[in-house]
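Limitations
The C-alpha cells in this dataset are predictions for the assembled complex, not deposited experimental models. Users should treat interface geometry with appropriate caution, especially where small molecules or nucleic acid strands are included. An illustrative entry is reproduced here so readers can see what is and is not provided.
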Amino acid sequence: MEKRFWNEYQKEIADDHYFYERSCIRQTFFPGSEAAFLRILRDELGKDICDNPHQHTCTGIGYHSDVVPFETTMTVVARLFSLMTECGYENYVPSCVTSFGVFSEMIEKWENDPKLLEQARQYLWEATKREFKIPKNIAHPSDIIYKFRFDLKPKMKYQLVNRFTGKPLRVVEHIGCHYAKIFPDRGVGKAEFPYVLAGMIEAWGGEVIDYPERRHCCGFGFRQYLVQENRGYSIANTKKKFQSMEPYEPDFILTNCPGCSMFLDKWQYTIAEMEHKTYDKEGYGIPVLTYEELTGLLLGYDPWKLGLQLHQVQSERLFNKIGIAYNPDEKYKGISGRLLPRPDRPECLRQD
Amino acid sequence: MKSVSIIGAGPAGIEAAYVLAKQGVAVSLFEKSSSPLKNIADKAFLFPNFAAATDIVEQMNRKLLNANIAQHLDTDIVGIVREGEQGWKLSDSHGNSYYSDAVLLATGYTPFDAHRKEELGYGIYGGVITSLEMEKMIRYNQIVNSLGEKPKRVVFLQCVGSRDEKTGNHYCSKVCCVTAVKQAIEMKKQLPDTEAYIFYMDLRMWGQHFEELYRQSQQEYGVRYVRGRISEASGTFDGRVQIKAEDTLMGLPLKMTTDLLVLMVGMEASEGTRCLAKAAGICGEYGFAQSSDPHLGDCLTSQKGLYVCGTCKRPMSINDVVNDARAAAFAILEG
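Predicted assembly:
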C-alpha cells in the first residue's frame, strides 16, 4: 500500500446527545458489546445517550429478505424515529449496520419523494397516533468511536502492539456492506476504502492489513444464509476471504456489523469441521472482535464482562500478545457469581 | 486581421500560429509551461503508423522557429475580456495585459486523474499505472512491474474516466481505444513473452487503419480482448494486482492477477480551458469550450473575434487537432 488518501472524506458525526437503537441480534451473539458502547460513551467520554426501552426491530433482515414489505419497514422506521422525537433527541445512533442502511435508505427516499414521507406519517398516525421528526444526524456507533478515537487513546491501558516483539498487531478490518456500499457518502472514507475501523486501528497502534478480498462480503448476505439451500454461497464467501487474508497472518479481525462478526467468527468452526482447515498457523482460528469489544479491552474492561468467552474463536492468545490481564477462572462465571457449565471444546478448533 | 493571441502551445496552438504567421498576421503564442508541447513530450509512438513522437515534436518546434511568432512561455493567461468593438484583452497571473484583434483558445485537455477511481487502486498499489506512465515506460524501454521486474502479464483497462456515470464524464475520450491497442503492440514488441489483455466495453476503431491495427494486435501479437469493465483492483501478497471483472461475452465473473494494470485515462477539459471558457462566456458541456456550430462553425464561437480549436472543445487525436487548428487559422483569416 503506497498512499492512503481515502480517509480524507469525513462524514458529519454529531458531538453529543444521541438516541441509541439496539440491534436485534447483537445482544445474543456479542452480549457485552452494546453495554460496553454505552459505558464508553457515558463513563469515558461523558456523553449523553438515550437507551429507550420501547425500541424494537427495524425489520432490516426481513426487509432485505423480501418477507417484510417496504411500507411496513417505512412505518416501523417512522415509529422508531417517533421514540427519538418523544425523548427530545435529534441524533440517531443505530447499533446495527443493517439498521443504519435501512434508516439511511428511508431518509433518502423521503427526501426524494415527499409523498412517501406523507404516507409514512399517515401510516404511523393511523397505527399508533404518533408523530416523528427526521433525525438531524444519523451515525453508526463505530462512527462515534472513530470520531473520539484520539480522546479515548490516553485513557487506554493497552495499545495494539505485540508486547513480545514490540511490533504493531496486524489487523484485518471488515466493514459491513450496508455501512457505505449503499450510500458511499454516509461512511467515513466512503465505500471503496472505508476508514472508520482502519482509523481506530491506526490510532491505537495497530497496522491495517490490505488484502485482496478486503471489500468482499462476509458471507451473511441475508438470503444466502436465511435460505438453508443457499448456505453454501454464504460459507464460500467467507472461505474466500479467509484464503485471501491467510498469507498476511492477521492477529485478529475487527468488524462493525453484527452479521459480519458472527459469520467470520462462527464459519471458522464450520470450515474447520468440514475441511480440517484453520487460517492461522496453529489451529486456533483468528479471533473476531467488535469495535466495542476492542475499545473496551484496550480501556482495560474485563474481557469476560465484554462477553468474549461467547465467541467461537477464543481470544486468550490475543490477550497474551497485548498483555491484557484476565482471570481464566472467571471465564464462565455468571452475573450471580455462580460458575456456569463449560461448553464442549470443539475438536477441530484448538483452545487453550 | 492584424494581430492574434493564441493561448496554449500544444499541437493546436503551434499549427495555427504557424499558418497565421506565414500569412503575415502578428501572432502572440502564450504557454503557461516553460516549454511547448507538454502533453506529447513523453509519448513514444503515435497511432496508427507508429510515427515517433519525438519526430512530431521536432517538426512542430521547427515550425515555431521558422515563423515569426512571439512566444510567451511561463505565462499563465487567467483573464480574457472583449475590449470595445474590435479587440480582446488578455491578462496573465502577474497582472500583465496583452491586446489583439482576435483570440484563439487552444488550451487543450488534462488527463483524467485516476485517483478519482479509487476502486482501481491507482496511487495505492504500485502495479496500477496510467496510460501516460505506460507510454513513458515504452518510450524508454523500461516496462517493469512495481518490483522493478519484467512483467509476466499486463492488463489494459479502457474507459477510465470516460463514459462513466460515477465520475460524471458521460462522453467518450475517443483516443483511448486505439491507444491501448497501440501500447499493447509496443509492449509485445519489447516483451514478446508477456501476456497482454485489454478489457473494454466496445472498441471504437473509428480512424483510418485503426481496425487493421486491432486485427494485427490479435493475429500478430496475441493480444487478448475481454469485453467487460474491471470493478475493483487489489494488491496481492506478492506485490501483484488482483482484478475482478465480468466477462460479458461469456456471462461469467472473472478474477485474475496481473503484474501491471494500465488505466487508459480519458481527457478532461484543462483548468485553463475551464477558466477561460467560463470567463469568455463560451462554456460548454463538461467544462469544454463551446463552438458556435458543430457543422459549419466548429472553430467559431458566440463571441466575435474569439475562436476555438483542438481538445479545448472535446477529445481529439493529434492528427484531428492539427487539421482543426488549420481550419481555425483560416477561419481567423476570413475574419
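Some entries come with short summary sentences. For this one: Chain A has two domains: 13-141, 143-330.
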